[in-house]
Specification:
The chain has 15 helices and 23 strands. The chain is an alpha/beta fold and 504 residues long. It has a seven-stranded mixed β-sheet.
Length: 504
């Protein structure tokens, strides 16, 4: 393998692990590198000049996964003079200099607070032929001020806050992302308008605790106001948000959801446990009665609302009675979907050292019972939609069997996954005419626990600007404001080694 030819731009890949926040951070990393002159390389190409790992520290085996992948890259780098490897994200924030000690072939380590420094650190490491480790303890610039290369033509993430002020005992995020920092509403809305101008139809407002938005500037109703303000943005068809915390959920947010036409009637609200004793041990400052009360209010205002959640099974000292209470809440809540997790130790969290760590076989058995309970409910809820007409935003990568079945896939307004048939020539949604980002209306014919099928021809098909962009292969980009950070031009390839002192 050889590095980029002299004078040609260097290439990059970003490999992402973890949550939506990491996915959106990777869009910023891509935007920064492209502004600095790097060119993106497809995942299938194993010859990039720069590989960036954007890591997650939530799962117990996150570090094993990172070091395993770094180990696979070492011989690749040995065969590729000038190749650089950078590690960022939550695991980098946690492990810091240990990464270079364990994997000395890594060139750059950067944290969650200084994404904007990456191009400079890469250039400095190349110049000094030494690893650069820069971890800041607080936010350098708000990430949304950075240039961003969006992954979708039709849907975009928009951060309204970063960090978290909660102290859940199972979660390491606050120590890695820091205290909550809120963007001003005008900045958020400006970014949304910029995305809509690029053809984006749907935005998801993103934060570690999205509905505590406004705490930094003293307005506890700021999030509801922000939702209403999105309703005034012409061309924005769908607004979602994730993830709210039940303790901060206020009635004005429910009213804003119900009364703002482009805010989708879908809500992802983590439960974590239905046992009040376990919630207390988790330091989740709500109880099951309050949680179910919020759901009752949401459904009163929006009977068609689809509610999804997160649940952890096997938290330290969880008893069989505690677990049964979780099943009771699941049955009462009637979730349309649930992300279920077996508790695993997160190094650095209080729960990792708690007494009462449960045997794997106990956790596994409860997990399987939870899955069965959830799927029984989600299947029943989905069956209620058979015969109903749904509006689907056509997506990329949602249907793994689409090529084999001849279907396309997308999301209904309530967030449910829909696999739909295309129409015959001359009919709405004719095969070959529907693009990612287009809108179709179709009738549900079959329900499964995790998706809906619509096997008849679409009732209607609307071509959109997002579909035009997808057809043209044009990804939205938002330029950002670098706030005085230095920029780097297209890096030249390093010179070939020469004899004498320069070779040593």
């Amino acid at each position: 393998m050889t590095t980029a030819a002299a004078g040609s731009p260097r290439t990059y890949q970003v490999r992402t692990y973890g949550c939506q926040m990491n996915v959106h951070d990777s869009e910023r990393i891509s935007g920064l590198l492209e502004q600095a002159g790097y060119v993106r390389l497809a995942e299938a190409d194993d010859n990039p000049d720069v590989v960036v790992f954007n890591t997650c520290a939530v799962r117990e085996n996150a570090d094993n996964r990172l070091y395993g992948n770094l180990g696979h890259l070492r011989p690749v780098k040995d065969r590729h003079p000038g190749m650089q490897i950078a590690v960022g994200g939550c695991l980098a924030q946690k492990d810091r200099g240990d990464i270079v000690r364990k994997a000395p072939w890594v060139d750059v380590v950067f944290g969650t607070h200084n994404i904007g420094s990456l191009p400079v650190l890469l250039e400095r490491a190349r110049h000094n032929t030494a690893a650069e480790v820069e971890i800041l303890e607080s936010l350098d610039v708000f990430p949304s001020t950075l240039p961003t290369r969006r992954e979708s033509t039709y849907a975009g993430w928009v951060s309204i806050s970063v960090g978290c002020n909660n102290t859940c005992t199972f979660c390491i995020v606050p120590s890695l992302r820091g205290k909550e920092k809120d963007r001003r509403p005008g900045d958020v809305l400006a970014e949304v308008r910029a995305l809509v101008a690029e053809g984006v139809l749907e935005v998801t407002l993103l934060g570690q605790n999205v509905n505590s938005y406004g705490v930094e500037f003293g307005d506890r109703y700021a999030f509801g106001k922000l939702l209403r303000a999105t309703g005034e943005i012409d061309g924005l068809e769908r607004v979602r948000f994730t993830s709210p915390h039940p303790k901060d959920f206020t009635d004005d947010v429910i009213a804003a959801m119900a009364e703002t036409p482009n805010v989708c009637h879908s809500l992802h609200m983590p439960l974590q446990s239905g046992s009040d004793d376990v919630l207390k041990a988790m330091r989740r400052s709500y109880r099951s009665e309050k949680y179910l009360g919020i759901i009752e209010k949401v459904r009163a205002a929006m009977p068609d609302a689809a509610i999804t959640t997160d649940i952890i099974v096997g938290f330290p000292s969880e008893t069989e009675a505690d677990f049964e209470r979780t099943l009771d809440v699941v049955r009462a809540a009637r979730f349309s979907s649930a992300f279920t997790f077996q508790y695993s130790k997160r190094p650095g969290t209080p729960a990792a050292t708690m007494d009462g760590q449960l045997p794997k076989q106990v956790v596994q058995e409860r997990y399987e019972r939870l899955i069965a309970c959830v799927e029984e409910i989600t299947w029943a809820e989905n069956k209620r939609l058979v015969g109903e007409t749904v509006e689907v935003l056509v997506a990329v990568g949602e249907g793994r069997k689409d090529d084999r079945t001849g279907r396309l896939s997308g999301r209904a307004r309530d967030g449910r996954l829909v696999h739909f048939a295309t129409g015959a020539p001359g009919e709405p949604g004719a095969a070959g005419t529907v693009r990612p980002g287009d809108i179709v209306h179709t009738t549900v014919t079959y329900a499964a626990p995790h998706h809906l099928n619509a096997d008849g021809a679409p009732l209607a098909h609307r071509r959109t600007r997002a579909g035009d962009a997808a057809e043209a292969g044009r990804a939205p980009r938002t330029p950002g404001v670098l706030l005085g950070l230095p920029t780097v031009g297209a890096p030249a390839a390093p010179p070939a080694p020469t004899a004498g002192c320069a070779a040593h």
